Amino acid sequence: MPDSAKFPPTLAPSSSIEHSERQFEALLAVSETIAQQHDLKALFHELSERLHSVISFDFLALVLHDAERNTMRLHILETREPYDKEPGKDFPVENHPAGWVWQNQRPFVTLDTEKDARYPEFMQRLTEVGVHSFAIVPLTTAQHRLGAISIGRYVPQGLSDAEIDFFQRVARQVAVAVDNALNLEVAQAYQRQLAHERDRLQVLLDINNLLVSTRETTAVFKGIVSSLKPVLRHDYTSLALLDESSGLLKIHALDLPGGNKLPKTEFTVSVKDSPSGQCFTSGQVLILRGAELDRFNLEVIRYLRKEGVQVLCCVPLSTNGRTFGTINLASRDPLAFTAPDVELLQQVAAQVAIALENALAFKEIDALKDKLAVEKLYLEEEIRSELNFEEIIGDSPSLRRTLSQVELAAPAGTTVLILGETGTGKELIARAIHNLSPRRERTFVKVNCAAIPAGLLESELFGHERGAFTGALTQKIGRFEFADKGTLFLDEVGDLPLELQPKLLRVLQEQEFERLGSNRTLRVDVRVVAATNGDLASLVDEKKFRSDLYYRLNVFPLVIPPLRDRPEDVPLLVRYFVQKISRRQNKTVEYVPSDVMDALVNYSWPGNVRELENLIERAVLLSPGKELQVPISELKAARTDSLRPAFPATSGALATPRAPASSALNEGSLGTLEETQRQHILRVLRQTQWRISGPRGAAKLLGIKRTTLQARMRKLAIKRPI
Prior knowledge:
Blueprint: H1 16-36, H2 40-51, E1 59-66, E2 71-79, E3 90-92, H3 97-104, E4 108-110, H4 120-128, E5 133-140, E6 145-153, H5 161-213, H6 217-228, E7 236-243, E8 248-255, E9 266-269, H7 275-282, E10 286-289, H8 299-306, E11 311-319, E12 322-331, H9 339-357, H10 361-385, H11 397-409, E13 416-419, H12 426-435, E14 444-448, H13 454-462, H14 479-482, E15 487-491, H15 501-510, E16 512-514, E17 521-523, E18 527-532, H16 536-541, H17 547-553, E19 556-559, H18 570-585, E20 591-592, H19 594-602, H20 608-622, E21 647-648, H21 662-665, H22 673-687, H23 698-702, H24 706-715
Parallel strand pairs: 13-18, 13-19, 14-15, 15-18
Antiparallel strand pairs: 1-2, 1-6, 2-3, 4-5, 5-6, 7-8, 7-12, 8-9, 10-11, 11-12, 16-17, 20-21
Helix pairs in contact: 1-2, 1-5, 5-6, 5-9, 5-10, 15-17, 18-20
C-alpha cells in the first residue's frame, strides 16, 4: 500500500480555530482558482494543490454525466500514484456510485473498500489499486446536475463528517467553475465552427469580388484556385466548357501537381468517354476514387495518376436549368472532397456559371457579395453574444414552469409568443428557445419593433431593391433573409405598424415575401418568436392589432413571471449580479446585509430583473468595502426589524452574521431629496426607453402630466443620452 500520503494528527480543541481558518483560506483560494482558470485540467490540478494544505487525500476525480449516453464519464483524475484508469472511460449510471450520487444528490462515503458490499466490482477495482476510503459528493449548480467529485485515501484513515462537509462546500464552488468551463468549451467549439463557416463564406465573397472586377477567363480561374486552396486542399484544377460547334468539352488546365505543366493547357475530350462529360450529362456531382479513374483512357488522367492523384471531383456549371460545363478538382488525399467540400464547390460552381453565362450575372453577384459581407458581420456579433444564454438565474416554481414550457416548445418549431413585463428577460428566453431547437446551428436574428421608426421597419424586415425609394442607393437584405433556416425574434411586436401586419402575417403563413421595390417572390424557412410587454388582446379589441395576426402569433403563449411573483429568486439574482459586477468593476463586495436582502426581496420591482441589475450595479459602485451598500430608502417595500445572518454574495463564500453596518443605512449618504427624485425619474425614463408621453410613457407611470415631467426634467438637468 502506498505510504506517500502524510496525515496530520487528530486536531486538538485548541487547534480547531486554526483548522477552520485554514479551511476558510482554502475556500478563498478555491474561489481565486475558479476566477483564474477556465481549463478543467488546469483547474483541477491547481485545486488539488490548494486542498492538500487542508485535507489529506491521494486522488481527486471529476465524473460528469453524459446525457446522450446516460453514463458517468471519468474526465479528470489527479493522483499521487500512477493509476491505469484513463479519463474518458464511461460507466453505467446504475452501476457506479457516482451515478447514485448524481441521481440522489447525496454524498456516497466508504470507510473501508474491502468491507463495503455496495457496487462490488467498483470496490474491487479500488481495492486492487490500494484505495482504502473515499467520498463522492454531488457537483450541482442552480440550473444543472453536472455529476460528482470524489476524493480517496490509500491509508486506513476514514473521512470525518467535518471533512465531508468541507468537501461539499468546495464542490459547490467547483460546480460553478465546471459548468462555466463546459459552457465555454461548447461556445468555443461553436465559435470555431462559425469561424470555419466564415472562412468558407469569405471564399465566396472573394470569388464574387473577382468575378465583379474582371471578365478575363484566365485571371478569373487563377483567382478561383487561390481562393479555394486555403480552405479546400487539392492538387489539380481545371475547367471544362462545352464547345457547341463540335459537341466536345474543351478542358482548360489551371493548376497541376508540383507546379508542372502539361504539353498543352487546352485540349478537348469526348462528352461520352470522360469524367467531365459524365458530370455534364447527368448534371450531378461526380466523384471518382482510385481504380475508378483508370477506366478512362485519357492523357490527362494518366498524367494525374502518375503524379499520385487519388480522387477526382467534377461539379456541373449550371444556371437557369442549363448546364454548359464543369469545374474539376483532383487530390492526392484519398479522403478528399467531403460533403461540406462538395457543398462549397457547388456554391462556387453556381457563381462561376452565372458569371460565365452573361453580363447580367454581375448584378446578382454584387448582391450576394453585400449579403455575405453583412452576414459575416452579423455572425461575428452572434459569436460575441452567444455566451449570454446561460444568464437565466432562478429556481422558483413559476420560473421552473416557464423553463419547462421552453423545453417543450423549443424542438417543435411552432411560433412562440413570449408575454412578460419590461425587464423580465424575454430575449434570454427567446435565445433559449433557439438554442434548444434544431435550428441552433443557424442564425438568431433579433428586431425591436419599437426601436425602429415605422417608415424604416418594412425595409429592415423585408429588405429593399436599389431605387425602391429616395435614399435607397444600394440593395438591402432584410432580417427575414438573414434568419433563413434560423430564428427571428420580434421584440415588442405590439408596436408593429398596422399597415405592416398583413405582410408579416403572409410570411408566417406562406414563408414568402417581396423586397420593397421588387416583384420577385422570395421564400424563406424562418421560425418566428415574438415578444410583448403589452396586452395584444386589448389592442385587437381597439382595432390597433389584426386579430388574424394575433391568433397566428399566439400559437404557443409563454408567460414570464414578473420578479415580484418570484421573490425567492431575488437572493439568487442578487448574489449573481454582485459577483458578476464586482468582478467587472474590480471590487471586493462579498456579502449582503440581511436587512438589505429583506428590502430587496420585499420590493415590488416594477422594472423586474433589469431594474434589480441596475440597482446592484450602482450599489456595487458605491460600496467601498466588502459589504454591499444599497440605498434602501429608494425601495418601496417596508424593511423588517428582524436580523438574519448576512447572505453570502458569492457561491460558497463564508460570511459572519452581523448587524447592518451604519454606513449602509445612513440616510445622509443617500443624497438629497432632489437627487433621489432625479434618480427615480431617470430610472423610469430608462424603463420606458425615454418615452415621455402616451399610455406607456414615463409621465403615465409617474402619475403626473407630460408638461410637469418635462418641467422637472429641465429643473433637474435630465437630458436624453445621445
